[in-house]
Amino acid sequence: MPHRRRRKRQGNSTAYVPTADAPNRVWAVDFQFDVTTDGRPIKIVSIIDEHTRECLGGLAERSITGEDLTTELDRLADQRGTHPTVLRCDNGPELACSTIAVWAYGRVGLHFIPPGEPWRNGDVESFNSRIRDECLNINSFWSLAQARVVIGDWKHDYNHHRRHSALGYQPPARYAAACTHR
C-alpha cells in the first residue's frame, strides 16, 4: 500500500521583506544541530543582522522551544534598542508556531521562506556553513557547557576579527559601529 506523503509545513508570512539597507531592518534566524560525545543532541540557533552581517546572538541548548526563542529575541532587542522590522526564517516547527506568531504581532513582521529554498535565507545559511566548517566540524563537545563556550568564542571572533568583503573587508562589529544610516 502506498504511503501518504506528509505535507510540508508552511508558515504565513506577515510582512513584505524590506531591503536590509540599515541595521536592524532584517534579522535572519536558522537552526542547526550537533551532538556531544555521549550522543546527546545540541540544538543551535543563530540570529544575524542581514545588513551588518553580525551574529547578534543565539542559543545552544538540548532543546529550544518557541518560548525560548522569543525570550532570546527580546533580549537582543533590548540590547540593541529596537526590534527588527522583519524576521526572516524558514518553516521549522520552532518558527512557524503560534508562540512566535503571537510574539511577533505588533512587534515585527515575519517572513517565511518557501520550503526547500534555503537560498532565500542566504545570509544566515552562509553563516551556518562557516560555523559548521570552522567550529562544529573541528571540535568534539563533551558537554553542553563546553559547546556553549566554544561556539560563543567562535561567534565573538567572527564578529570582531573576521573580515568580510561585502563590508569593505571590515569585521561586522567594526562596520556596525561605523554605520551612519540607521
What does this structure look like?
The protein has helices at residues 66-80, 98-104, 122-136, 144-160, 172-178, and strands at 26-35, 41-49, 55-61, 86-89, 109-112. Strand 4, helix 2 (98-104) and strand 5 form a beta-alpha-beta unit. It is an alpha/beta fold and 182 residues long. Strands 3-2-1-4-5 form a five-stranded mixed sheet, with helices on both faces. It has one domain: Nucleotidyltransferase, domain 5 (2-Layer Sandwich). The protein is globular and about 60 Å long. Helix 1 (66-80) packs parallel to helix 2 (98-104) and helix 3 (122-136) packs across helix 4.
| N- and C-termini, Cα separation | 58 Å
Q: Specify Rg, calculated over alpha carbons.
A: 17 Å
Order of helices and strands: EEEHEHEHHH
Name of the top-level CATH class: Alpha Beta
- Mean of residue pLDDT values: 89
Structural class: alpha/beta
| Total count of strands | 5
Q: Going across the major beta sheet, what is the strand order?
A: 3-2-1-4-5
CATH superfamily: Ribonuclease H-like superfamily/Ribonuclease H
Shape: globular
Main attributes of the structure:
alpha/beta, Nucleotidyltransferase, domain 5, 5 strands, 34% helix
Quick synopsis:
This protein is 34% helix and 19% strand. It is α/β, with parallel strands linked by helices and 182 residues long.
Q: What is the strand and helix layout of this fold?
A:
Elements: E1 26-35, E2 41-49, E3 55-61, H1 66-80, E4 86-89, H2 98-104, E5 109-112, H3 122-136, H4 144-160, H5 172-178
Parallel strand pairs: 1-4, 4-5
Antiparallel strand pairs: 1-2, 2-3
Helix pairs in contact: 1-2, 3-4
